């Protein structure tokens, strides 16, 4: 499970949905793997505003990955000026400038870092969801449905 | 605006217009239908430029190619008159370049001699360049539309080729050549059309909550979207050894960069963030979602069981206790129970309403018996606007692709009564009682007869086992 996906998931229990402590899920005994992927600037520009930064920061820290700034960086700091939306709509298509280090780091963290196995723990109810072979299992036993 | 001839395919007719409209929106081009008929593979549209025509057709699955329209008419003399009237402004661009003429006869045929005569009847066109059948600069095509069984065409067109469609993807993604599929995999053609109608594209995030072997995510990834999927059955995601699994399919098509993740979950108890917003919904508490598109073919309860987490009622207390004792065991599989199809559809609608971004799309398949009214049972939601309803008919039943658009939060009508999802009747336990389509399917879609109405509970029990 990629770190980006983890940012979109909470505890599956209905009772936990309204509880702030249920998000993010906390990785435990996580075995990480790096799966290389091509940098997708367009996707990151679209999806980064939807990321809950504080939750991402917490998860990154818990996994012992390089720590993130306390507040989400401004889009201008991530995406080179020449390829911002304003320039993209202009008639000339500027040559793709080299991606910033920050963009490459976020790509590496969100889309290349994968939890291969381990557990995801709800901070509210303590329920543990297993991750095996990169696939998390969110099925609940009948008494928690 | 100049007119263009679209050579469509004569299958899945009710999907063709919806696909072109979706592609026009995606490409940001103005398109208007000048003439269109479900009964014909030829359709005239108006577009701003050949560049717009190229942008429009490049992803199309249900067309073959687009042509600049040089003339059309209900007979050969009428066609010539039309060509002479409208095409002269284009002539200088082809005066000295290589060219070729070919013929496309729909539901008709001509002998070679008759083809030559037809093509040579255009010899008044002032082209002095060489005739070249392979890779000419300009390729002209005469189109003939015959009524079934007729000897003479009912309509003719002449067009200059502009661009091919994206239909070769149908062959690339053919299920017969895919390493990992299941009995309920959607055929490649319709999966790709589903992704088109939902505007899958580069930079977007798409999700399929009933992914199975991943046919829809693969189709969305083909068009450049990054994809997420889940299924209640983890076995379908993990697949078999030797790499026959969902990820293996992405590898086969060299799309792994567009594979975000798969996970095991049930839509009625989903871990997806924001999916269980306050219910009933009102516009005031409609936060922006994070998915650009949701495309799915939910289980109808026929070939694929329609189940959600939980224990079927009336299975005895001992079962509940057994699960309480053993749920932490290694390899424990949570129990599942049958569920109502109507309730599931409404769950999907609600899920889409709260997880889609504004303008995001939901593409959802649903079955119906042919004797039910088509429009009546299209599920509705105040946050979602119907974009298109496309029908694929079978012999006694049909299935529809419903495409919805998530409305901007400020345009949602707050005055309407709050949306309340259709819930299950707690008294219903058997799959057949919960799912009228499943019942009809296994009854062979018989007309309701008086004696069938009075059949007792015993008969119903037998049918549901």
Automatic annotation (TrEMBL), chain A:
Family of the protein in this entry: Belongs to the TRM112 family.
Q: Which GO terms describe its molecular function?
A: protein heterodimerization activity
- The organism's superkingdom is given as Eukaryota
Where are the bilayer-spanning segments? none
Q: Which Gene3D superfamilies match?
A: 2.20.25.10
InterPro entries reported for this sequence: Trm112 (IPR039127), Trm112-like (IPR005651)
The protein here is known as Trm112p-domain-containing protein
The UniProt entry's GO biological process terms, in alphabetical order, are: rRNA (guanine-N7)-methylation; tRNA methylation
UniProtKB/TrEMBL annotation, chain B:
Coarsely, its chief localization is cytoplasm
Q: What is its EC number?
A: 2.1.1.214
Which UniProt keywords are present, listed alphabetically? Cytoplasm, Methyltransferase, RNA-binding, S-adenosyl-L-methionine, Transferase, tRNA processing, tRNA-binding
A GO molecular-function term, please? tRNA (guanine(10)-N2)-methyltransferase activity
Tell me the enzyme class.
transferase
Q: Which GO terms describe its biological process?
A: methylation; tRNA processing
Q: Which residues form the tRNA (guanine(10)-N(2))-methyltransferase TRMT11 N-terminal domain?
A: 3-167
Q: Which InterPro entries match?
A: DNA_methylase_N6_adenine_CS, SAM-dependent_MTases_sf, TRMT11, TRMT11_N
This entry carries the following GO cellular component terms, namely: cytoplasm
Where in or outside the cell it occurs: the entry states: Cytoplasm
Q: Which family does it belong to?
A: Belongs to the class I-like SAM-binding methyltransferase superfamily. TRM11 methyltransferase family.
PANTHER family in the cross-refs = RNA METHYLASE-RELATED (PTHR13370), TRNA (GUANINE(10)-N2)-METHYLTRANSFERASE HOMOLOG (PTHR13370:SF3)
Q: What is this protein called?
A: tRNA (guanine(10)-N(2))-methyltransferase
Report the source organism.
Lepidopterella palustris CBS 459.81
